[in-house]
Amino acid sequence: MTSQPEILAPEALHHVTFTVNGAAYEIDVPARRLLSDALRQDVGLTGTHVGCEHGVCGACTILVDGRPMRACLLLAVSVEGASLTTVEGLTESGDRLGPVQQAFKECHGLQCGFCTPGFLTTITAGLRENPDPTEDEAREMIAGNLCRCTGYQNIVKSVLRAAEIAGSRQARPAEGSLVEPVETTPETGGDA
Ligand code: FES
Ligand code: FES
User: Fold this and answer.
1) Does the CA dihedral 159-53-80-43 come out positive or negative?
2) What's the burial of 112, exposed, middle or buried (CB within 10 Å: 0-12/13-18/19+)?
């Protein structure tokens, strides 16, 4: 006698609200949905990469309320009300690259780029805690993230360069803000 296939009940969905890079999102997901999958599939932000799904490689690292966390080790339902930052949120206003992004570009801190989103978020959080790291401290900052391409030398250089860029941006406002507002009078061509 052949057994009948088991008919599974539809999976219950849970309503979750959070912000990602300052924008509010509401999603309905099964209790077992990983945050990394929710970000990529339900929110549509594919910058967060998924490598090992075991918390080992760091590719999925995002900031949860400012702290770096493995999105593959969190369930989406567990971040109700949280403020998340993904790699897409590191770009500054006016589409200026954030300090860590700029440093990776200048120092050739990536090759294939698969690991890069996790490094960028990890280093962003690391520099907030230690804005002026030594080379050893820079190595320690990235010790939890794996890269299969670069040999880490240029990533370490990028950490040190990012610290310089962040420091100089704090000391000097963004270029646009250095421009004094011009009063609009009929003489300067403004609307009367
Ligand atoms: S995918 Fe999350 S740590 Fe590797
Ligand atoms: S740049 Fe390829 S894995 Fe890091």
Assistant:
1) positive
2) exposed
Ligand nearest to the CA of 119: 2
CA dist 58 and 145 (Å) reads: 5
10-residue mean pLDDT profile of the chain (192 residues): values are 74 97 98 98 98 98 98 98 98 95 98 98 98 98 98 98 96 53 37 34
Greatest Cα pair distance, the chain, in angstroms, is 96
The number of angstroms, rounded, from the C-alpha of 44 to the middle of its chain's C-alpha atoms is 14
Task: Report yes or no: 39 and 85 within 8 Å, Cβ to Cβ.
Answer: no
- Least distant ligand from the CA of 114: 2
Pairing of the two strands 83-85 and 61-64:
antiparallel
Q: Is the CB of 50 under 6 A from ligand 1?
A: yes
> Which helix (H) or strand (E) is 138 found in, with range?
helix 135-141
pTM of the complete model: 0.86
